[in-house]
Amino acid sequence: MRIAVVGGGPGGLYFAALAQQLSPGDEIDVWERNAADDTFGFGVVFSDETLGGIEHADESIYRQMEREFARWDDIDVHYRGEVLTSGGHGFAAMSRKRLLQILQHRCADLGVRLHFRTLAPDVDRLAADYDLVVAADGVNSAVRARHAAVFGPSLESRRCAYMWLGTDKVFDAFKFYIVDTPYGVMQIHGYPFDATGSTFIVEMADEVWQRAGFKAFADREFAPGDSDEKSIALVRELFADVLGDAQLLANNSRWINFTTVRNQRWRHGNIILLGDAAHTAHFSIGSGTKLAMEDALALAAALHEQPDVERALAAYEAERRPVVESTQRAAQASLEWFENLGQYVHQEPVQFAFNIMTRSRRVTYDNLRVRDPEFVERVDEWFARHEQRRGNGDGDVRPPMFQPLRVRGLELKNRVVVSPMDMYRATDGLPGDFHLVHLGGKALGGAGLVMTEMVCVSATGRITPGCTGIYTAEQTRAWRRITDFVHTETTAKIGIQIGHSGRKGSTRLMWEGIDQPLPEGNWPVVAPSPLPYRPGVNQVPRELTVRDLGEIRQQFTDAAARAVEAGFDLLELHCAHGYLLSSFISPLTNRRTDRYGGSLRARLRFPLEVFASMREVWPSDRPMSVRISATDWCDDGITADDAVEIAAAFAEAGVDLVDVSTGQVHPDEKPAFGRSYQTPFADRIRNRTGVATMAVGAISSHDDVNSILLAGRADLCLLGRAHLYDPNWTLHAAAEQEFTGPGADWPLPWRAGSRRPQTGRTEGPKPRLELIRHGEPGTAHRRWRPGRG
User: Fold this and answer.
1) What is the rounded CA–CA span in Å between residue 619 and residue 450?
2) Euclidean distance between CA atoms 479 and 468, whole angstroms
3) Which DSSP symbol is given to 222?
4) Where do the NADH:flavin oxidoreductase/NADH oxidase N-terminal domain residues begin and end (predicted)?
């Protein structure tokens, strides 16, 4: 084969070395426009997992890298005059320049032809002359741009400015410095890369960057290789306490806004994208070098294993794309955390340190407990005392999910909520035995609070013929039967979610066709504006008059009064998912020109009027919550910032909890699904407004629940599908954590089953008698000590 590599960075060089080693007869050319000894940046950092792959792929390269490594395990968070340390993380870093030298020498030894200070020939010419063209030419890839119509690139510029610097101060661990400057909060990401220096990345939100005057310094063209010396001088001044007598080192250092690169396709004919040309992930969770070298390894292996280039490139992309997308999701969570850093600076140091450690959702409560149990014990102790100061619990340390929560006169025994889930099993709005067993069983299963499905305020306010209501005395009595069971047989509380379907009503049962109109027996639907959910499929709703609004407001108020009679402990107003009140809030569904349309405040007017009217009849010692869609996941729809304003408006009206969901407002939505994907919206609302929040959406493990609570991202966690899979989810979560205290009480008849049953016999090797024990128990708190490893 003849292989052309465009770009002589670590990814391109490593691929060339591996491919040449696997197939010595191939002809491989690498073009790099810079000189061999040019390098930008300072250190690169690797995980143990990546290093394991490098070691097995080319031991020669690995051994040379290993001799250069600065190794350590600790992360230090410097915040509010305290240093909080978490150990057991396992880092290895080295100079980027030394890495390039090692890879260049290895390529030369293997016979790879290296062309420095040379622009690569035209990519189409390369594609014609070579069997394979590897585009490893970075974030600003010329190859990708040339065939953008095929690759389908998306380049998203983010909201923080950062500058890549170095320092001759040798850090002994990974360092986060969070500094409150006169211009706002700035942060340093720092780590050692050898015995002489450290990487020193300064980052801040754009508004802080502008207030500090950096924009004026950066508002000019820099020659290639030049650094922004004026900005560097101010950075040195602002971080004088961090640097001491150490110097800042510049290398083409200037302000950058991180660009997240994604591509719909990575291959075009015999051209393949690799590293930053294909994808980027924010530096706060690792390095682009790490991802590029992992790409290189996978591509070289695929070429070796597959019979031809076409199948090799398909196998490479199929293997790497899910890994990269997972990394990018974690990186997105991390970069957004730093973009919103200002919303956390009120947190106490221990909680802040836990928050920063778990920001990407890859490192979690359980994961940290394995790495550094002492750190997690400290956080657990802090949380127990903190919640006691807030009037929750007695200060006893327990898993965070089992700390109680008091809201008005209601005390929940733990922080787990069975999320509202439509069951579609009612007849004429009447809940029956199914609902008794469904909700009663979930209450027996250990959750602190069990929520009903959306209970509708009128027959025409139902979503489907199978939806429940609370608009008749018979329905009220049926609900009372359920709440009596929950209160008599369990220690759970039960809440009711009240809503009106709006334009999404008069549709089939979920398993008959979700959001599909009824073929017969349908009823007319209403909305703030005559816009069907799906034009040509769903009904065109009748636009509500002001008189109609008064009637519907009274229906909600009557439903709240019946909910009192039915014995519910908490009332939630459904203002999400494109149902009636939600469709008033979203600009995609509310085109009114009267006082109920226009600005966000005006669009909120009717939902707030409904809430106020319900609050008047709902007992003052019982809490009310509101469910909102914190984003429409659509252009020109509700945004995360709008959600903060919406939550603040309901908080001003007297809401106690905001149940933060997203989407389901417009059929063209493009949600960013993933584990706990809606939690950042609850996090933002809680930490910007101070109102208590409930997180929902792909939360399925007790590890996630504990992580969310400890980091201060929400006060309660709602789980839906996890409870459908396991109605005793909360009790089993207690058993898995070996917790038997308050908040995890098994019903007396079930206590014999409170321990996990044996699943079968295992015949493993018998443990030998150790005559000598090596090492000491406890966390690895290795620091980087040059000369001592």
Assistant:
1) 19
2) 10
3) P
4) 401-734
Q: Is 778 a residue whose pLDDT tops 60?
A: no
Looking at residue 776, its pLDDT comes to 45
Please state, in angstroms and rounded to a whole number, the distance separating the CA atoms of residues 295 and 532: 46
Among all residues, which ones are annotated catalytic? 579
Backbone angles phi, psi at 173, to 5 degrees: -165, 175
Helix (H, G, I), strand (E, B) or coil at 117: coil
Q: What letter represents residue 680's amino acid?
A: P
Report the C-alpha gap between 284 and 258 in whole angstroms. 11
CA distance 342 to 631: 21
For residue 85, the one-letter residue type is T
DSSP letter at 286 equals S
> How far is it, in rounded angstroms, from Cα 709 to Cα 400?
7
- Return the pLDDT at 673: 86
Of 699, 682, 681, 565, which Cα lies nearest the Cα of 633?
681
- How many residues are listed for the chain in this entry? 789
Instruction: Please give the structure tokens belonging to residue 12.
Output: 């391109």
178 backbone dihedrals φ, ψ, rounded to 5°: -105, 110
| Dist CA 548 CA 235 (whole Å) | 61
Q: What is the mean pLDDT of the chain?
A: 94
Give SS3 for 250.
Answer: coil
Environment class of 225 (CB within 10 Å of its CB; exposed 0-12, middle 13-18, buried 19+): exposed
**Tokens representing residue 10 in the block:** 């670590």
Q: Is 514 helix (H, G, I), strand (E, B) or coil?
A: coil
Decide: 508 and 584 in contact? Cβ < 8 Å: no
**Calpha distance 312→290 (Å, rounded):** 22
Region of residue 742 (left: phi > 0; alpha: psi -120 to 50; beta: else) = beta
The conformation of residue 764, written as its DSSP 8-state character, comes to: P
Question: Between vectors from CA 501 to CA 498 and to CA 506, what angle results, nearest 5°?
Answer: 135
Any residues with CB less than 8 A from the CB of 541 and at least 6 apart, and which?
A: 502, 503, 524, 525, 526, 527, 529, 530, 531, 532
Assigned token pair, 667: 């059929």
Residue 388, CA atoms < 13 Å, CB-side half-sphere: 11
What tokens does 651 get? 């908080």
In this predicted structure, what is the pLDDT of residue 762? Answer: 57
Question: Read out DSSP for 394-443?
Answer: -S----GGGS-EEETTEEESSSEEE--------BTTB--HHHHHHHHHHH
Q: What is the 3-state secondary structure (H, E, C) of 125-142?
A: HHHHHCCEEEECCCCCCH
Q: What are the helix and strand counts (H, E) for the chain?
A: 28, 29
pLDDT in tens, 131-164: 999 999 999 999 999 999 999 999 999 999 999 9
Structure tokens at 72: 């350590």
User: Are the C-beta atoms of 483 and 567 separated by less than 8 Å?
Assistant: yes
Q: Which two tokens stand for residue 245?
A: 């007598």
In sequence order, which residues have a C-beta less than 8 Å from that of residue 437 and are 6 or more positions away? none
* Amino acid in the structure at residue 427: T
Give pLDDT tens digits for 268-280. Answer: 999 999 999 999 9
Helix pair angle (96-110, 10-22), 10° resolution: 30
- The C-alpha atoms of residue 11 and residue 13 are separated, in whole angstroms, by 6
Q: Which of 753, 638, 624, 637 is nearest to 691 (CA)?
A: 624
User: Which residues lie closer than 8 Å to 752 by C-beta, 6 or more apart?
Assistant: none
- Contacts with 38 (C-beta within 8 Å, 6 or more apart), sequence order: none
Q: Residue 669 — left, alpha, or beta (φ > 0 → left; ψ -120 to 50 → alpha)?
A: beta
Above pLDDT 90, what percent of the chain?
Answer: 88
Give the residue-averaged pLDDT of 167-176: 96
